[in-house]
User: Which sequence fits this backbone?
């Protein structure tokens, strides 16, 4: 239901396109920085870290790029959740309305990031009374916090409370598997196209990264749509005033 609503929502598709551009900008900047950093002595020196300097650099920089890209995508995911959830609930969703919702939910949205990374021993220093601890989120219900923020709750604590009342449903793993599998196929097709000279003047690396970005963002968008649709279909109003 959520995926079908996503495909039929122009607002959700526009936000996905904008998110793709934003993530692509992050990756492009990271590649430029990485090209410069790769020539440093730490990376090129065969004695650095017993010859593992280049490997360590690749792993650390790759993880950093994924983390930054995820942070950049987060507000776009909330907008997608708003558009899809509103459509499932039978409510109108406009681009202007999604912008307003995003502005009003920006703070609790990034407080949710703090909750996700709050592990000991930094949890006490990282979280404040406006945040929630990871222990307050019911098992399996963390997937519904962003949809709850997008559709119903204006604070993180309220969103977690509503998300905890949602019942996890099967099907998310299938959406992720299809998305990741399709991404792999896109990357393989891009590599093959570049090697056979049909890459419209782009390098093999550019085609591969472009395919990975497109597939990754679409997978994230479809996952968000599934979560928003699953949340919106459930009646969790009982007990709320």
Assistant:
């Amino acid at each position: 239901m959520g995926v079908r609503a996503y495909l039929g929502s122009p607002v959700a598709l526009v936000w996905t396109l904008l998110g793709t551009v934003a993530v692509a900008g992050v990756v492009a900047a990271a590649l430029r920085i990485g090209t410069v950093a790769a020539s440093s002595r730490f990376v090129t020196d065969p004695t650095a870290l017993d010859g593992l300097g280049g490997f360590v650099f690749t792993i650390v920089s790759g993880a950093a790029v994924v983390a930054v890209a995820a942070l950049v995508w987060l507000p776009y995911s909330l907008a997608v959740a708003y558009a899809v959830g509103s459509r499932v609930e039978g409510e109108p969703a406009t681009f202007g309305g999604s912008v307003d919702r995003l502005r009003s939910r920006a703070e609790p949205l990034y407080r949710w990031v703090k909750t996700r990374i709050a592990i000991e021993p930094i949890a006490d220093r990282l979280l404040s009374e406006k945040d929630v601890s990871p222990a307050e989120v019911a098992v399996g219900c963390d997937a519904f916090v962003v949809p709850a923020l997008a559709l119903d709750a204006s604070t993180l604590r309220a969103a977690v409370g509503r998300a905890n009342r949602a019942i996890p449903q099967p099907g998310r793993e299938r959406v992720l598997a299809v998305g990741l599998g399709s991404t792999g196929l896109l990357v393989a097709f891009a590599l093959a196209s570049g090697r056979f000279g049909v890459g419209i003047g782009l390098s093999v690396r550019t085609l591969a990264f472009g395919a990975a970005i497109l597939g990754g963002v679409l997978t994230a968008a479809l996952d968000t749509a599934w979560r928003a649709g699953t949340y919106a279909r459930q009646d969790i109003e009982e007990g709320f005033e």
Remarks:
- Residues 7 and 44 are 47 Å apart (CA to CA).
- Residues 53-88 form the longest helix (36 residues).
- The mean pLDDT is 86.
- The two ends are 28 Å apart (CA to CA).
